[in-house]
Amino acid sequence: MELVYINEGNETVTLNQVKPLFLSKLDGVGSVRQTVNTFHAPGQDGAFYISSTVDMRNITIEGNIIADSIEDSYAYRRKLLRIFTPKMRGTLIYRERQISCIVEEAGFTVSNSNRAPAFFISLLCPSPFFETPEEIRAELALWRENFSFPLEITAPGIELGIRQPSQIIDIDNAGDVAGGCRIVFRALGSVTNPELMNVDTGDYIRLNTIMAAEQEIHVYTYFAGKKVVSVTGAIRVNAFSWVDVGSTFLQLSAGRNTLRYAAEENVDLLEVTVYYRPQFLGV
Fold first, then answer.
1. Counting beta carbons within 10 angstroms of the beta carbon of residue 42, is it exposed (0 to 12), middle (13 to 18) or buried (19 or more)?
2. Under CATH, what is the fold of the domain 136-280?
3. What is the pLDDT of residue 79?
């Protein structure tokens, strides 16, 4: 059992079952609670189900500082207090999954020997879902390599890559719940009104604009983090006003999602890439 905690200052501490920072107990990573909203009418048996939401996650960590001297024990204690500061947000990594959190409490007690102080750390996770540490990349407009080594180029030359004709791709979200993503539209030339549609639901995100060559538009569909940014070289511009009024900020459902990209003009000059992190209810 090993935990890695990284705070916003990029300071890191690793807790496992070896000294000097011996991890003895971890709670809150394998289960979640939810709040169920219902409506009860007068005289009704039971209630109407309205909705439910997953509560914040509370993770508690317990262990001991096993050091060779009292001075070393207090040095490790100061290190833990500095890294597990309530003034900074942090990220907890466990079993190749990560979760954002804030420190709710960091406390210490001292044993009779004064050489093995115990520590107790409580972390509050506003978003209760664990995520993969790295984003998963899915390209909708693919180029297939058309050469290999050893390479011999003869007249009139060779094609280095072939653009795949399909505009549809299946994305398999291995997570337990639906989640947002980052959609990148990239124009190889002039492209009018690019869009991405979820074929299964009919929901789409369309941008009413004419993209220039090498321009990128990044669409973020995360809950409480929705934004649209146009990127041309080093220039970044807020492009939220380009979103079509009928658009939906697409969410990737757990399981298979079938997506199709399109444009009113020059769809062959459009590249679309989707970045996402599967979300899990526990590890």
1. exposed
2. Jelly Rolls (2.60.120)
3. 92
| One-letter identity of residue 34 | Q
In tens, the pLDDT along 97-141 reads: 999 999 999 888 765 555 578 899 999 999 999 999 999 998 876
Q: Which segments of the chain belong to CATH 2.60.120.860?
A: 136-280
Considering the entire predicted model, what is its pTM? 0.81
pLDDT over 80 at 146, yes or no: no
**Whole-number Cα distances in Å, 201 to 32, 222, 250, 253:** 28, 18, 10, 10
- Mean of the per-residue pLDDT values for the chain? 88
* Topology adopted by domain 2-128: Elongation Factor Tu (Ef-tu); domain 3 (2.40.30)
Torsion angles phi and psi, residue 175, rounded to 5: -75, 175
CATH 2.40.30.200 residue ranges of the chain are 2-128
